[in-house]
Amino acid sequence: MPVLKSDKLGLLIDTGGCPNRCAHCSVKGKPTRQMSYQEMRWIVQQFRELRADDRPFFSEIDVGLSFMEPDFRDDYRVLWDLQCELGDVEHKHGGLLSIWRIARDDTYLTWVKEKGGTLCQVTLFGAGETHDRFTRPGAFADSIEAMKRLLEADFAIQWFLVFTKAIIPDLDELLHIAEDLGLKERSERFICLGIVEPVGRGWNLEHLRPSSADLDLLPEFLRDRDKAGYGERTEAECTRLALDGKVSPGKYETLWLHIDASFNVFPQFGEVQTWYRLGNLRSDGPERIIEAYISDQTPGQHARFVMGAKALAQRYGNLESDLLYTPGSLFHRWIVQHCTSREPRRC
Fold first, then answer.
1. Which of 71, 93, 121, 170 is most exposed by smallest CB count within 10 Å?
2. What sections of the chain are H helices per DSSP?
3. Residues of the chain with pLDDT under 70
4. What is the value of pTM for the model shown?
5. What would the DSSP string read from start to end of 10-68?
6. Which H or E element spans position 7?
7. What is the per-residue burial (b if ≥16 Cβ within 10 Å, else e) of 266-290?
8. Residue 284: inside a domain, yes or no?
9. What is the DSSP code string of 143-182?
10. What is the pLDDT of residue 347?
11. Overall domain count for the chain
12. Counting Cβ atoms within 10 Å, is residue 137 exposed (0-12), middle (13-18) or buried (19+)?
């Protein structure tokens, strides 16, 4: 089971949803309501009041007030200040910014810089209509406008290219765009090529999962694994690793919990799905939620920590497949299959 190795807690709270409906989203990009400041304070207070042996159960709590696109709410500056007030950890603004807001709010990047931000990740599923099909109408145009504004404000840009069969025909066009923007001159490592995790909405992209043969279709610049940043293996290779006991469930020094707008709670390593649901903070309280986490009460945790990758590989592994996964992403897929009795889609 995921033993608590420290008394530190992280809370990632969905306070306002997301403008996008990204096809790889682990939380399904579902519509949500805007949570009130009072509700945010109440959530954190529940865990601050949790005690063991007459002492606080957690000595340090880190708080994040979004787990989809950050800074989407119009009161994003108030939320940042509230996040700093509610948590014990000092933050600088990281590389995940709101592309939607950059393209619309002329003051946003100045504010991000004041909060320590210097980098922005731009996720792309393809060029033009391809990208929009996987996110929302107008998303690619927003990304282009956002990148122009980022460069004008002297931000570093990191591309995350979602590697599916759909993006392959667009890669040359994307590299031309990068050249026009001067991204390659700024950094040789401006691109990270990543495989979709088969969780949440990403499950529906399994029919677009690339195979080892698709690596030969990549532009030469992206065939260098060190430059492109991908480390995927074939499903057959990952299955052999699991059968040999070389795929671990992961180590989690700090307990991070995801809390949705309905107060349902999920562990950091799982997707926001019923088989990982630890409970509801309103109806179950923090004690039962922490107990569910420690004792592996959810089907997803049981599959991950009790059964393990080797047992799941024996049941669901494929020693003939050349589809590309990381060992961890394939482990995720087996957990979904085990918890839902679903078979992955194939090309």
1. 121
2. 37-48, 76-86, 99-102, 108-114, 129-134, 139-152, 171-181, 183-186, 225-228, 235-243, 281-294, 299-301, 308-316, 327-340
3. 1-6, 18-21, 23-32, 188, 224-231, 342-347
4. 0.88
5. EEEE-SS--S---TT-TTTT---PPPPHHHHHHHHHHHHS-EETTEES-SEEEEES-SS
6. none
7. bbbbbbbbebbbbbbbeebebebbb
8. no
9. HHHHHHHHHHTT-EEEEEEE-STTTGGGHHHHHHHHHHHT
10. 27
11. 1
12. exposed
Is the Cα dihedral 299, 305, 307, 308 positive or negative?
Answer: positive
In a domain, 54, yes or no: no
Asked if 221 contacts 215 with a C-beta cutoff of 8 angstroms, the reply is: no
The pLDDT assigned to 24 comes to 67
Chain center to CA of 92: 19
CB 333 within 8 Å of CB 325: yes
pLDDT at 223: 72
In a domain, 53, yes or no: no
Other Cβ atoms less than 10 A from the Cβ of 168: the count is 16
Q: Enter the DSSP assignment of 343.
A: P
Q: Does 201 map to a domain?
A: yes
Residue 210, token pair as written in the block: 């690339």
Closest CA to 329 of 244, 259, 263, 237: 237
Q: In terms of residue numbers, what domain contains 136? A: 92-231
Q: In this structure, what token pair is assigned to residue 280?
A: 């509801």
Q: What are phi and psi of 221, to 5 degrees?
A: -60, -30
253 burial (CB, 10 Å; 0-12 / 13-18 / 19+) is exposed
Q: What's the rounded Cα separation, in Å, for the pair 178 and 160?
A: 12
CB 19 within 8 A of CB 142: no
The closest of 199, 295, 296, 304 to 249, measured between CA atoms, is 304
